Q: What sequence folds into this?
């Protein structure tokens, strides 16, 4: 152990560094829940889509060597749009359901950031409300696929 | 089994391994997934990157939840630096279109090698001493403490060189968006060497930030059609299982053990990717 490791040291003017949410619950707990639940929902949707996909393909005829040979477009990008996902999910299409799960996964960190902004607002920490809001806006740009 | 269903099963198992190792060292797991899908399964590197960036969100969010709950994460430092990584990630995802596969392989190898050097050089420094918080860190109340699992109580630490760390984080964001990895190694490097955070806090905070960084560029890959559902699904599910187990193991290991475990694996993968980039393989 290093000699300058501080054990049981009194807080050195940094007792605000573990932010407390209103009601005395640490912010960490809320963030932990959002991440956990978001990932669980996304994983459940993706798992459902995968099971539907595996159930739908039936016994295998071919024995492909490369992954590129078996995915839809011979190893190239497959076009995707909000309407293709929506129609696919409604009609029970397995890959569209997986895509919905992927979107849920992307939304998980976004939800965490939005919630962190609210918690900083409750603490009247203006600098961090501003920082967190800007991060959220950048994520919105990413979500709508800016430039793609 | 023997066709596409076997591929899905194999990818799932490989992703479990990648998620386990990745979370133990504070990396997103993408650094192992991209080589696995390209070298191991013969997938186009762009599609490997697309599947990886999505899985990185799952790893990071799953493991981050555990670290945050255990008070290892510095939420304020993470939020501040996400400003740099998210903008960087979008930059990277937009630039990636203009680069060919060889360049991506080569950059991937370089990034991997680059992430090994500080791991060897600073092997085993868990808590840096004599760190005085800089002006920004003091103003933003970035200094904090974390629980000491071995001896009980808490370990306090300060934060320094915030501007340098912020700049390094932008680069980490670009690399993440470009290569579909969490670039946890670069994030840890910025927090470890520049901002002088304790190793465990760097790892946990890195994991915390990786999800947001990856989410910033994932939408761009998704709408571009580079996230193939039947590849992304077993990768995301597998990596999630591995990362969940890894996060439970991490709090019991010393950092040295974790690093030593991962170093040789990282080295072999880096050389392989570099050889692909230069056309030898």
A:
């Amino acid at each position: 152990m290093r000699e300058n490791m501080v054990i049981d040291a009194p807080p050195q003017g940094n007792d605000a560094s573990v932010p407390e949410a209103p009601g005395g619950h640490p912010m960490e707990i809320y963030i932990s829940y959002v991440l956990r639940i978001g990932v669980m929902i996304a994983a459940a949707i993706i798992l459902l889509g995968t099971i539907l996909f595996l159930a739908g393909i039936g016994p295998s005829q071919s024995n492909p060597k490369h992954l590129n040979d078996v995915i839809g477009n011979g190893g190239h990008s497959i076009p995707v749009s909000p309407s293709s996902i929506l129609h696919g999910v409604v009609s029970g299409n397995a890959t569209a359901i997986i895509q919905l799960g992927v979107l849920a996964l992307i939304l998980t960190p976004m939800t965490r950031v939005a919630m962190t902004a609210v918690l900083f607002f409750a603490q009247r920490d203006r600098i961090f409300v501003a920082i967190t809001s800007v991060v959220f806006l950048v994520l919105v740009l990413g979500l709508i696929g800016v430039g793609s | 089994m023997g066709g596409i269903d076997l591929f899905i099963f194999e990818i799932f198992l490989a992703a479990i391994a990648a998620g386990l190792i990745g979370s133990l060292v504070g990396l997103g797991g993408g650094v192992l997934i991209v080589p696995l899908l390209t070298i191991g399964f013969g997938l186009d590197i762009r599609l490997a990157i697309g599947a990886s960036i999505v899985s990185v969100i799952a790893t990071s969010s799953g493991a981050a939840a555990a670290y945050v709950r255990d008070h290892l994460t510095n939420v304020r430092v993470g939020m501040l630096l996400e400003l740099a990584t998210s903008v960087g990630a979008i930059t990277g995802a937009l630039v990636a279109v203009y680069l060919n596969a060889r360049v991506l392989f080569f950059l991937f190898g370089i990034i991997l090698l680059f992430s090994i050097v500080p791991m060897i050089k600073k092997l085993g420094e868990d808590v840096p001493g004599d760190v005085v918080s800089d002006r920004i860190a003091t103003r933003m109340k970035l200094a904090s403490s974390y629980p000491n699992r071995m001896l009980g109580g808490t370990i306090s630490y300060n934060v320094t060189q915030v501007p340098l760390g912020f700049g390094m984080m932008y680069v980490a964001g670009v690399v993440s968006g470009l290569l579909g990895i969490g670039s946890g190694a670069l994030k840890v490097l910025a927090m470890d060497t520049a901002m002088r955070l304790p190793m465990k806090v760097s790892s946990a905070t890195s994991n915390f930030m990786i999800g947001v960084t990856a989410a910033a560029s994932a939408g761009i890959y998704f709408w571009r059609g580079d996230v193939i559902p039947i590849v992304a699904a077993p990768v995301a599910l597998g990596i999630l299982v591995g990362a969940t187990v890894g996060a439970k193991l991490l709090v019991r290991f010393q950092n040295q053990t974790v690093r030593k475990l991962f170093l040789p694996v990282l080295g072999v993968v880096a050389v392989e990717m570099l050889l692909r980039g230069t056309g030898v393989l």
User: Anything to note?
Assistant: The mean pLDDT of chain A is 78. Residues 27-57 of chain A form the longest helix (31 residues). Chain A touches chain B through 87 residues (CB under 8 Å). Residues 34 and 137 of chain A are 19 Å apart (CA to CA).
